[in-house]
Every structure is written in structure tokens, then in C-alpha cells.
Amino acid sequence: MAVSTFWYGCNMTRHGEIIRLSQRMLEAVGVEAAPVGGPGACCGSPKESTPRIAEGMADRTMEKFAASGTPRVITWCPSCHANLDDFMGQTKEQGFDSQHLCEAIHEKRAALAPLLTQRVSARVFVDRHVGFQGRVPVNDIIPELLGMIPGVEVVDHPYRAPSYMCFGLASVPGALADVQRTTLAAMRETGADTLVTIFHSCHREMIGLERDHGIRVVNWVHLLAEGLGWPYEDEYKAWRNAEDPLAAIGPERVAAAGEVAVRKLVEPELTRPRLV
Amino acid sequence: MVAHQDWSALRAAETQRMLAACTRCGACFEACPMVAYAPEARGTDAKAAVIGVLDVLAGGPGDAASRNWISVCTRSGSCNEACPEAVNPMLMLRLAKWQAQEGGVIPKRDAAETMARVKVFARLSMTEEEQAKWL
Q1: A208 falls within a domain
Q2: Which residues contact A172 (CB under 8 A, 6 or more apart)?
Q3: Which tens digit of pLDDT belongs to each residue from A169-203?
Q4: Which residue does chain A place closest to B123, by CA atoms?
Q5: Of A9, A67, A177, A193, which sees the most CB atoms within 10 A?
Q6: What CATH number is associated with residue A36?
Q7: How confident is the model over A119-154, as pLDDT tens digits?
Q8: Contact by Cβ (8 Å): B3, B65
């Protein structure tokens, strides 16, 4: 059987457990998919301030997909997904079809349902955004999948954050803080105890709320894994909410990853100020 | 058969299409939830803001309001829903941002360390075997 590609993007390297769980979940519903991502399989989005460089990165990724002979690319990142539609597939031969991870799992939900045997008591508020919903109805599909987990109640609320994911909001003064405040207010209004993020950049920005606001923050893949009874550890969340992130990572792992690089590139991100 | 030879050709074709299709009605600006975060664009005439964006898209400097609006775009897509001509204002603002950054009209995002950071996190969150297979 031809193996699909699970294109997790570049910034997902922060969340190895989500990549592992996604691959395992796809396999459990009958989809064999090989994870691919990082700088060598980039859509170019992080470098689009210089489109020539972004284009070069995206072209190399398309060539990589073509060389692999993959029949299907299953996306995670909304930036990658949109760039594939809008630029990469418009300028390079695309010998594969594509869909988002939530679509791939949703179309196999009949196979997923009997596997969701573990009760997870949670009243869930989904961190819905506008922007990507027009391409993939994530705001409908993901709550439906979460609602299949025994014990999970997904609350309904009209609030939608004004961006395709939190990444863009973080660079606009005041915007991300407003979204976090509004999200917390909506959770209080609905009595939700768990905030479920859809995208990685939202997860990165929202997990800090867990420490000070009496809520739990998980990604939708995490919650499905709990319903499946699969253990995992959200290490990025543990590091972000630790008093001393480098101590939480541990000196051996810091040394193995390169202490200078960790102190320069990782520590500032994990210790950045909390907005609310 | 691909639709465009490369990104430059795609951008040129889309720019021409947008300049021709847009009626400068201002509906996209009025629908944008991010104008509230653009102090130089707030209160600006919607039609003038769109005219400024189209000027940037065509290689001009635009005005302060349009540049500020372009810089706060988060791709909410609210503009696309409001546009009566299916111009795709979300893509219009994105291409205008690229044009403005290339021309020095608005500053580029500093992404110099992005990929280095991606690699360090990979070393922290993935096993060596996973790094070899997945990166």
C-alpha cells in the first residue's frame, strides 16, 4: 500500500508528541503516513518577507514530495495547507492529493469511534479561529471528533479569534492579549474547564493560561489520545509553565541539544512574558 | 501543466487581476477585525484605505493608513466574506505586504533565527531516530 505523507510543518518540532500521536491515530484508523517536516520540508511561510527565499524552500519541498511518490499529503499547519493550495500547487506539478489531518481522521471516524473507550471528564471550549475555516471546516470537524470521546462535552459559543491562528496575533500589539481575555471570559460564561487548541501556534500561546487561570489547556490531538487511552507528555507545556524551564528540560537534554543554542533560542521563548 | 511558471508570474497575474476586479468599495476594510489594532488606519475612509493597498500592490508607497492596515493583517478572511467581487482581499493584502517588504515600504519580519530554533526544538523533542526519519 502506498504510504501517505503526514506533513507536520516546521514549527511543530516543539511538539514531538503530537507528531507521534497523529501518526499513531492515522494508523489506528487505517492510514499509513510517514511524518515529514522541519526546515527541509518547509512551505516557505516563515521566510515570506523575502518571497524569493520562500519560493526556493517551497519548491524543494514539492520536489521532495514528488521524489517520494506519495499519493497523499496530510497537512497539519494551516500556513502549509494554504501555501500548498495558493502557491506551491500553482507553480509545481502536484502528483498527489491533499487534506488536513482532521479531515483524514474524520472520514475514518467509524473506525475511530470504537477505539475511544476511555472516559475523559471535560467541559471543552474549542479555540476556534476564523480564516482557515473557509478552506477546511476545522471549527466543525474537530468539535465533532472531540464529542465522540466518552465524558467530553463540547460547549458552544459564537466567539471566533480574528486570525487564521494565533501566530499572526502575537506580532500585533494588544491583539493576542485581547483574544486571551475574551477566550477566558467565554470559558467562564459557558462553564468550560478545558481549552482545546486546534493549531500549534495557538497551543504555544494558550498553554501559559493554564498556570494562572484555573483551566486545563490541551490540543485536540492530546484529548483524542486520552480517549484512546494512549499516554503522552506535553513537554512544551511543562517547560513553558515551569519556574525554571531549563531545569525542567534537564541538564543532560540541554547539553545534548547544545546548551548555547538552547539558551539563545529556546529559553527566551519559554520565559517570554505572560500577557494576561 | 501548472497554472504559473513561478511565484513571480503568479504574483504578477494575481496583481493584474486584483487591480482590474477591485471596485474600491471598501467593504473589506470595513469588515476587517484588525483595523482596531492599526492606529493609523482607524477612522480612515474605507475606500481610501483600499486605494492605498492597491497602490502598494502595484509597487507604490501607499499611505500611512494602508501600510498600517497591511501590517496588522492576520488573515482572518473576514474581508473575503465581505468582498462583493470575489477579489480575494486576504491574498491582496498578503501580496501587498510582500511587495511593501521587498520595496522597503514596511519593515521585514525578523525570521533570521526561525529555522535554527526549529532545529534546536527538534533535538529536544525528537529522538535521534525520529530526527533522521522525520526532518
Answers
A1: yes
A2: B34, B37, B72, B74
A3: 999 999 999 999 999 999 999 999 999 999 999 99
A4: A257
A5: A9
A6: 3.40.50
A7: 999 999 999 999 999 999 999 999 999 999 999 999
A8: no
